[in-house]
Design goal:
Layout (H helix, E strand, L loop, with lengths): L1 H6 L3 H9 L4 H19 L9 H24 L5 H13 L3 H14 L4 H10 L8 H14 L8 H11 L5 H4 L2 H15 L8 H14 L3 H9 L16 H23 L1
Helix pairs in contact: 3-4, 3-5, 4-5, 5-6, 5-7, 7-8, 7-9, 8-9, 9-11, 11-12, 12-13, 13-14
């Protein structure tokens, strides 16, 4: 709902706030919408291609979001949601590592295996944001190793590898024994997950892409069949032609899966 308010009209959210000013759900949606709106103002271009005007609006909204986040947390102290929203604030404003660790403690005290929180926090620890390749890898490994089966957190190892190496290696890197093991472990975790887990489609997008890059087309096709064309998922969202990239990979997967199937008969 925060995405809806940030990207389209927020008239309904303002009406909700006026009608129920003490509603914790409304406060959470408002906080998330404020942070997401800040990122909308920034745009998706690289820093060197982003105008000063965009950065000013971005930082202004992120700074203002702290009051909304704090109010949402006060209205529902046990909810990790406001703190999860703050991770994107931490990314944009450049929280120091000790500040991020303090924020992370607030989240894990309330929801130790929260997928969105882990997936977003991983971005903070990547080299392109506030961490390094080693810190991203260590964060993913620790989270995946401590999580119960079916939590979906095993895919963090796959995502960390992608963030660390996707720009350096071709298909050979994706098809290495090490990466194949990471993907297979994540597939096993997905098999044990709740079919109604709200983040399951995002994980399937990642696995479909990796299986496609590994030439495991029948397995990739199975994952593609279980998701829709949501191109804001990883890795499609990193492309300037997201929908075309997604459709090209899906189409090639379908075609190659037929060939792969005939070759095994």
């Amino acid at each position: 709902m925060g995405h809806l308010a940030a990207r389209r009209s927020d008239r309904w959210l303002k009406a909700w706030q006026l009608a129920r000013p003490g509603d914790p759900d409304c406060a959470l949606v408002l906080a998330r919408a404020r942070v997401l709106y800040a990122w909308k103002l920034r745009g998706q271009a690289r820093a060197q291609d982003t105008s000063q005007r965009r950065f000013e609006g971005f930082h202004r909204e992120l700074l203002a979001s702290q009051a909304d986040i704090r109010r949402a947390a006060e209205l529902h102290p046990e909810d990790p949601g406001p703190y999860v929203a703050e991770i994107w604030r931490a990314l944009g404003l450049g929280y120091r590592s000790r500040e991020m660790r303090a924020l992370w403690s607030e989240i894990t005290a309330r929801a130790p295996y929260h997928f969105e929180a882990h997936n977003t926090a991983l971005q903070y620890w990547t080299a392109k944001w506030r961490g390094s390749k080693q810190l991203a890898r260590e964060f993913a490994e620790k989270a995946a190793a401590s999580a119960p089966p079916g939590s979906l957190l095993a895919v963090l190892r796959v995502i960390a590898w992608y963030e660390n190496h996707a720009d350096e290696l071709g298909d050979a890197g994706f098809r290495s024994p090490q990466v194949r093991v990471l993907v297979d472990t994540a597939l096993a975790d997905v098999a044990l997950a709740d079919p109604d887990h709200p983040r399951l489609p995002e994980v399937r997008h990642v696995l479909a892409y990796f299986l496609y890059r590994q030439g495991r087309y029948r397995a990739a096709r199975e994952q593609f069949r279980k998701v829709d064309g949501f191109t804001e998922a990883l890795p499609w969202r990193y492309s300037y032609v997201k929908s075309l990239y997604y459709r090209a990979a899906r189409t090639k997967t379908g075609r190659k899966a037929l060939t792969e199937g005939r070759a095994r008969k």
